[in-house]
Amino acid sequence: MFFGSICTSVEARDLIQTLYHADYTPDADDEIPRFTLDGELGVLLNTGNTSASTIKAAVNADHETENWSSLYFAELLYKESGTPTTERDVSAQRFFASAQFDYKLLSPGRRLFMYSDIEDDRFTGYDHRASLAAGYSQRVWRNEDSEFRYSIGPGYTFVEAEEENDLLINDGIIVRASAEYKYFWRSGARLRQFLSTEAGDENTRSRSETSLSANVFGSLAMKLSFILNHETATAEDVDALSTETSVALVYQFF
């Protein structure tokens, strides 16, 4: 009777631990801890009858821990042009930075995310814009050849328009959704497709980025990118759709 009581209590304790004390198990294909940092730089200089210079720089970081998966991104674009008889005019000046923090749930690949970004673009009619969002994200799969993840959730956007911008788009609630697909070749080449949208009552902003990179040697790679930005409501004399094609060198620091 005594030993039977002990066995019963042990079984009950194991059952309680199974139901209420499940240990966290990270994704099997995660290398933890892991930190990667890539730097991107593209420069174009023209001299002669037409003088022009274009600079695009970006930093991309990925930090993986047992409980968190974090993504950091910052980008700078600057372009000016002119002729020997005229002053050089700035035709593009943009800074963008974003960060996303994914908290890993017990089920592999399932997370809760927090996202924030800030944009300062001289030629959109806004002094600056910023967004905050939170919700659910999932890495649907990740293997040797490819990876796919998405996130969706509510948020809030903060808008500061320039004085001459007659189109008043106020701060407001948004729904943010994003998806990212990557494909890896054994040679080291990589294809990346990224889509995001922020939908609000007065404006919807969408972005598509397609890039293909190939190793040159060591940690240095060549990257070709094509970017689409679209807005449903824009300031006067600002196109709803803008495109950007660039070729840059990418160096992996870590």
CA-based shape: flat
By DSSP, the count of extended strands is 12
- Per DSSP, the total helix count is 1
| Total domain units | 1
Physical arrangement of strands within the biggest beta sheet:
1-2-3-4-5-6-7-8-9-10-11-12
Look at the helices and sheets and give the structural class: mainly beta
The proportion of strand residues reads over 45%
Average pLDDT metric: 85
| CATH class group | Mainly Beta
The CATH homologous superfamily corresponds to Nucleoside-specific channel-forming protein, Tsx-like
Report the CATH topology name. Answer: Outer membrane phospholipase (ompla), Chain C
Largest sheet: 12 strands, antiparallel, barrel
